[in-house]
Amino acid sequence: MVADMTNDYEFFTYDAGRLNAAAVEIFAYPMGDLTVRTLTDVDLTSGVQVLWVHTAAPDWTVVFNWAALTAAYPHRILVMPFLPSARGDKDTPCPAHTNARLAALSGITGLVTIDPHSPVWLDTLRAVNPTVSAHVIDMAKVVTGAVKAGDYLGVIGPDAGSLGRASAVAAKLGLPVFVADKKRDPSTGALLGYKAPAEAQDRPGRYLVVDDICDGGGTFALLAQGLGDGFDLDLWVTHGGFTKGTGVLTDNYRSVHTTDSLRSAAAAAVASPEESAVKIHPLHQYVLDVLDAINTAR
């Protein structure tokens, strides 16, 4: 067993509305190469086979070998809320394409995810293997189950790229949506700061900032500082990487909301200096709803 990987991968069988731990483990050979195998003298049980990935950098050997191990079962579902390298959709070479191709060829029959940054990852998955079904949890539904519309004057997107998800959240909350104005150095393209959306400048108060991914958090701190003292902010990021901790966020936001799509989010919540500074909203029930639909259709 690979001790430092056990928290990154969970193996289940879904049946009758429940996720049951599967008799599967990750095994490392003496030279370090990995495989997946059943526990000694224990058979796999029937039902929808599920591999839940909690890391931003999965080892595809684990996924391929798990799909091979469960190949006799018609439904092999990869629950991967955070799509690895999804933000690399414009890079050359394109790691979003690479990871999506690996998923498509791995032997899975379906993928469950949330807030996939852009269409590139899933478009590549479908193009490479149209038989793999993609199930995207409604991010706006998760947000509206986590916050109260009456707490806010509106929803703010950090940039034009966030407008779609911010608008979806605002529509479900019945609130207006605004996009902050970025300031960049025209010679280098470096981000210098933000200023409040023109439509919201005369309406200071409490707002919800919405985006998909938080890495180090510096950009979100710049956003809060650029909006100014009249803006009292909460932050929603679906995927909390928090690679530099949460201090830079909790210094600038009343509270930070995220899902448990990554183990780093849960770790950051535990390490948060204030008990309520980082709020984790589990995806478990939303995943169960998707698996139930798959199970009903089989």
Please explain how this structure is put together:
Keywords: Kinase, Transferase. This is Ribose-phosphate pyrophosphokinase. It comes from Mycobacteroides franklinii. InterPro entries: PRTase-like, PRTase_dom. One of its GO terms (molecular function) is kinase activity. The radius of gyration is 20 Å and the shape is elongated. The longest helix has 14 residues. With 298 residues, it is an alpha/beta fold. The chain starts with 8 loop residues before the first strand and ends with a helix. Helix 2 runs parallel beside helix 3. Strand 15, helix 8 and strand 16 form a beta-alpha-beta unit. The strands form four sheets. It has a six-stranded mixed β-sheet with strand order 2-1-5-6-7-8, with helices on both faces. It has nine helices and 16 strands. The protein folds into two domains: 129 residues, Rossmann fold; 145 residues, Rossmann fold (3-Layer(aba) Sandwich), CATH 3.40.50. The model has no long low-confidence stretch (mean pLDDT 92).
